[in-house]
Hints:
Layout: H1 3-23, H2 64-70, H3 74-82, E1 100-101, E2 107-111, H4 116-121, H5 128-139, E3 148-151, H6 165-182, E4 186-190, H7 192-199, H8 205-209, E5 213-215, E6 218-223, H9 226-231, H10 236-252
Parallel strand pairs: 2-3, 2-4, 4-6
Antiparallel strand pairs: 1-3, 5-6
Amino acid sequence: xxxxxxxxxxxxxxxxxxxxxxxxxxxxxxxxxxxxxxxxxxxxxxxxxxxxxxxxxxxxxxxxxxxxxxxxxxxxxxxxxxxxxxxxxxxxxxxxxxxxxxxxxxxxxxxxxxxxxxxxxxxxxxxxxxxxxxxxxxxxxxxxxxxxxxxxxxxxxxxxxxxxxxxxxxxxxxxxxxxxxxxxxxxxxxxxxxxxxxxxxxxxxxxxxxxxxxxxxxxxxxxxxxxxxxxxxxxxxxxxxxxxxxxxxxxxxxxxx
Length: 257
């Protein structure tokens, strides 16, 4: 008790003792015996306040461009392609045909789309057209392992048909990143569809074959697709002239090997 409390108590005690003389004996409890509360009243626990947490970068959905730029190796890009539903065609249960060859190649060959054999083996140009392509490469002193070979489409279209515009549009960002990672000195497009799709044009194969092109700082040539040569052997001679020009320019640029 404080001093002020004791003084009040004494005054009350004196008053009650005076009353005792009038009304008779009664007792007065001591302050420490009084029924004063000895504990603090229960505290009301406040409900914890929760605040929304800011999303971390890893939880934020990345754009396709951000996902592609995050791929710094072909293995990382391959994994992204395996997860990309937009790369698949209307043909069910096809395998990814990503690309094959030297990941640091100075010459990159780009076809149109995988065929049946390519789908089965998961590798571009492994059927009859692939065997002819190997012979063409050997004729200009390349092994298949020296170059890198890919297609615009990463999955086989139904009936081995030509890629349509929607399929090409969905596949191009992945192919562009593939080219950026490899950083070839030269690109050789195999076939009209490959050349027009990469260059963003709509011209004849003859027009594309007649000149050297530029694609994002990389020199680009266009020639016949090996499958077309199997159906039209008369086109082998102009194809030979095309690939000789590619080899010549490759050597001029210091390509290895």
